[in-house]
Amino acid sequence: MTEVYLNGAFMPLAEARVPVLDRGFLFGDGVYEVIPVYHGQPLRLAAHLDRLERSLAGIRLANPLSRAHWEHLFTRLIASQAAENQAIYLQVTRGAPPVREHRFSKCVEPTVFVMTKPMAPRDPRIAEQGVAAVLREDIRWQRCDIKSISLVAAVLLRQEAADHDAEEALLVRDGWVVEGSTSNVFIVQDGALATPPVGPELLSGITRELIIELSERQGLTLKQRPLSVEDCRRADELLICSSTRELLPVTRLDGAPVGQGQVGPLWRQLDAAYQACKTELMRTPHG
Q1: Is the same domain home to 134 and 256?
Q2: What CATH number has the domain bearing residue 71?
Q3: Does 287 map to a domain?
Q4: Overall domain count for the chain
Q5: What is the pTM of this model?
Q6: Looking at the domain assignment, is residue 284 inside a domain?
Q7: Co-location of 50 and 185 in the same domain
Q8: Do 113 and 139 reside in the same domain of the chain?
Q9: Do 75 and 131 sit in the same domain of this protein?
Q10: Are 272 and 131 in the same domain?
Q11: What is the pLDDT along the chain (287 residues), one digit of tens a residue?
Q12: Which residues are catalytic?
């Protein structure tokens, strides 16, 4: 039976309940994080908790738990699952005031929810065929650097990609590709990598930061600069990344081949480095 944490108590998932007046339910007023776990070890935990702090500050909500408390919750929930590779999902909302009101209510405790689920292995066909993506106008709000639970725009965009047999929708804002609906974007051109710079129009992905670090370790050239639609269409390689999907090669964009339409050498190099990073994490003693 799956165990979750909700507002100070561990319980079966089927028994977890929140009030209908919870602001997360009524307004999408909250933030979340997704943290990959390999062999019982969270990857880049400190970076995820740092981003949680930034997201909470962005919506003017104090962090309800200390880092030690968060880590205790994660350790217990990870141990409750049989799967070695998991994804932690945590969500903090502004809680449930006595009445529905747009303005913040005073003296309301935040709602804190945490669960884990098994993380499926990557489909081996991806390494041979890559995935498809489509370009779509960015219809989201102006603070995409906050990992908000208000995700209806991202849901619609990701579903539109699925409707076209694509893995992801790459989002275009004022002519520039900023990120995917649930991922960050890299291109490869003339042997060099590029990715859009951090700003309010995109989420600073933890996996994105790891890919940047791995690129530096591999001695690759990488620039953080705006990417135009044509940059993506003419790229030799196009890559997307996220915490649970890791790094994926995009070989088709809007039905047209990216580069030669094949998985490229820089994806293979970076993916090997990423897998080595995971292996090193698995060798680290549990703290």
Answers
A1: yes
A2: 3.30.470.10
A3: no
A4: 2
A5: 0.95
A6: no
A7: no
A8: no
A9: no
A10: yes
A11: 789 999 999 999 999 999 999 999 999 999 999 999 999 999 999 999 999 999 999 999 999 999 999 999 999 999 999 999 999 999 999 999 999 999 999 899 999 999 999 999 999 999 999 999 999 999 999 999 999 999 999 999 999 999 999 999 999 999 999 999 999 999 999 999 999 999 999 999 999 999 999 999 999 999 999 999 999 999 999 999 999 999 999 999 999 999 999 999 999 999 999 999 999 887 765 54
A12: 147
267 shares its domain with 157: yes
Residues 97 and 134 in one domain: no
Q: What does the block give as tokens for 272?
A: 């090997």
